[in-house]
Structure prediction request, 353 residues.
Amino acid sequence: MTWLAVPLLALGVAAIRLGGMFVAGPVLQRHPLLIRLSSLIPVAVVAALVTQLGFLSGGSFVVDERAVGLLAAAILVWRRAPFPVIIVAAAAVTALVRLF
Amino acid sequence: MTTSRVQGVSSSPVVSVSQYLTLAFSYFTVGVTVSVTLVERDVDPWLILAAGLFVHSATSELAHVAVIDAGGPLLAGVASGWLVAARFGVLAASLEPRLRSSTPWWHRAGIAANAFDPNTALALNQSDNRDVRRAFWWVTSALVLGWWVGSITGVLLGNVLHDAKSIGLDVVFPAALLAVIGGQLRSRSGLVTALISGGLLILSLPYLPAGAPILVAVFGAAAGALWPNRPSARDNDDQDPVRRPGTTRDDIR
Prediction:
């Protein structure tokens, strides 16, 4: 992250939030498909990021210790565990697998 | 608008003390997670705090960093940060009908600029429109307080932790992101979106320049949105907060 990235991110994120309130709020209510699409875009990006961070190494697909930690996290997310529990468990499981 | 409530009742607390502390603690962890992630990448501590204050979206910060990590150019990183913030636009849009008639535009702008999952969910859960703003700002204060203390703690902690990999800190980053979309993965459209997007990333990786596969993966959202809804499905489909107020997870952003 650089000093140039922060203002760019900040302006874009603020514009999206204000756009939601003043533009999308009144309009989107009438277009359910658009609402679905805009709430799924973050799911798409985040899923791709999780794939990249959890399963890629040097540009190729690998399943290593990270996958075990992420599996633990996924189970806890499914069980609706609180955020701090998910984070600590993911790190702890990964660290333990690395020990052996 | 239901204004039949007794005046005294609406001044009762909209957020309990334990709820307040739980929310603050969750965002404290978010703040720690982001700061530690950034310290690990040798980002200037002041820049870390400035990003928390001005970007005001941990997911955007993490999404940006993930693309830069993969060797993507600045603009691809920024675009990825913007795309994950689409969620906040939807949250702000879902608050709009509850505020339209009662709240001046500058106050609505302030609320929009601070829209996160927990404060929006709890605000929308209020039955009385007059309580919407109060619930929103109470929760917001808990989130911002926790986040700030967490961001500073994370900067200090990050400088102490060495060999982050041996204690599994590299997985904290994807695990935090997974938790963010956890609520939506329960819906069929969310799950389809996630699987197709992850697949698109892996398939496009060998053929595209760094940073681009993440942006290609956005098209998974179109597949998820068009995926047929089956009312008899085991899970509740359509967890979007606009039509189903209060269904967002209330402890993460």
